[in-house]
Specification:
alpha+beta; Aminopeptidase; 2 domains; seven-stranded mixed sheet; 16 strands; binds coenzyme A
Length: 359
Amino acid sequence: MSFLSSHAPIVDHGLDLDRFRDEDASSLAALFRTIYGNEYPSPEVYDPDFLIQANRKGTTCSYICRDGTGRVVAHLALVRSAPFDGAMEVAQGLVHPAYRGTGLLSRLMELVIAEAARSHQCATLFATAVCNHVMSQRSLAGAGFSDSAFEIDYTPSRLFAKERASRGRVATVFAFRSLKPAPELPTYLPQAYAAVITGMFQETGTQRRFLHPRPGLPLPDTSVTEVTDVPTLDVTKITVACAGRDLADRVQQVESRARSNGRAVVQVLLDMSTPTVDAAVESLRAAGFWFGGVLPRYLNADAFLMQKTLSTPNFDEVKADSSAAKDLLQVVQADWFRANVSVMVTAPRDSARPVTRSP
Ligand SMILES: CC(C)(COP(=O)(O)OP(=O)(O)OC[C@H]1O[C@@H](n2cnc3c(N)ncnc32)[C@H](O)[C@@H]1OP(=O)(O)O)[C@@H](O)C(=O)NCCC(=O)NCCS
């Protein structure tokens, strides 16, 4: 058992868990640099003034651990990063290498969850845990989070270069914990993945009003979409509020631009409260996109994630910890295979090999 197990008072070890104060800003920026060098995808974290302002405004609520000298040695934050104001992200988990494996992240997790429920108007919490190790996933599972999606190849390996913690791009697993249940939230089920989605909601005890889209539903001419390009992660995201007949063309244009800009991943998020979600999924499947999972209440409505990596995905290094995450990863991998393997050459014996679609 770690020396920081829940029953040991943390002050006995010269450590102090607390809400961030202005005077912690330089030390916190230095901790980001110790772990990520200059590669953290939101470079503002290196700016002490930004950290102070973000905490004053409440866009980020940082919780930290100081050692006996007042130096910040661990950090975890609640961040307002989702389109839905009632969702907060548990993010930016950092523990100084000298203090790892002693339970600090999990102690901060307990504090942050208690604060989210007590002090912030928050209906749901989510987190994206990197999958080059299992520590964040374990800590989140211990805090009552459930895994619901994989974002394959989401983070560049350069982010982990300083710690030599990955060879290729790193996947993240999306985990959520509902603080205020929303059983009446309408969720249209894409037919191709209806069983996986309802199974996931059932296993996590999350209730919804599931709806089946009407076959042959007429689509508007024009889709309502928002494109976000994130060069620091090499990712382009498209959020689709409503799919129209032009969706395939729109996505194709965004994908071409992403390729020419050297992006590694294109993600599409579909609003599941609109009945056009099924038509959108079918159009994306035909365009080579594959299953990612569900981001519950990310848009206030649930969001369905489909994804495409623009080169061969790094499945080999994905560490899925819980049995739910392992099952989900299998679904993701099988669907990647469906989307990418157009012909299976079966003869002669022992030389069967998949033939992948050219980009
Ligand atoms: C990930 C990181 C924050 C973990 O901090 P930590 O204080 O060492 O983590 P903890 O000791 O609290 O352990 C967290 C969980 O992982 C488990 N764990 C710890 N070391 C482990 C190991 N070597 N192997 C497997 N599990 C381990 C713990 O038992 C704990 O699970 P529990 O709460 O069910 O007991 C730290 O390694 C770090 O800063 N890494 C670099 C940045 C990073 O990857 N951040 C995460 C972004 S999502």
